[in-house]
Amino acid sequence: MDSNLKRGRWIGYDPPTYSIELIGKVMGIVGLGSIGIKVARIAKALRMKVVAIKRKPNPLLRELLGLFFLGGPKDLDYLLKESDFLVLTLPLTKATGGLIGERELKLMKPSSFLINVSRGAIVDERALYKALKEKWIAGAGIDVWYAYPPDPRTPSPLNI
Predict the structure, then answer these.
(1) Among 5, 22, 39, 68, which is most exposed with the fewest C-beta within 10 angstroms?
(2) Cα 148 from Cα 115, distance rounded (Å)
(3) Quick check: 56 and 33 in contact, CB under 8 A?
(4) Tell me, what DSSP letter sits at residue 40?
């Protein structure tokens, strides 16, 4: 909208250009360590309903942060189904590698967004590409790469 306005074009609030109201939306956080806690606090400040999972959930942490729900790894499906924004903030381990694949992406709402600020390998790259292409989810924010440095011989489907 900014670049259009600078060019003298007023688009107004045509559906592709409007922003999403965050108040009342559900922020799901997978991994409630130091980064996840910061995300939870920001989401709460934006008046979002916050649900999270942590390897070892602590009821005191749930109360301290004012979370609507805090569960363990077995509660991932609940977060996938409930979240409007699902943020991944967990470390890459044997248990978390490939954690989000086709099955998990299909459980998400078609209007939801996946945000990965942890490690690329936590999300199956080809499954995410398919989910975006086939509109299983509304979008993805990715702050990570799958290969460092990128290999030009095997380009990521997300870069094509």
Answers:
(1) 5
(2) 19
(3) no
(4) H
Contact 79, 30 (CB under 8 A): yes
CA distance 37 to 50: 11
DSSP label at residue 88: E
The backbone torsions φ and ψ at residue 50, rounded to the nearest 5 degrees and listed phi first, read -110, 125
Cα within 13 Å of Cα(153), Cβ side: 0
The domain over range 22-142+153-159 is classified in CATH as 3.40.50.720: yes
Strands 85-88 and 139-142, by their bridges, are unpaired
Residue 154: how many other CB atoms lie within 10 Å: 8
Mean pLDDT for 52-81 is 96
The pTM is what? 0.84
- Contact partners, residue 84, CB within 8 Å, separation at least 6: 25, 26, 27, 109, 111, 112, 113
In three-state secondary structure terms, 138 is coil
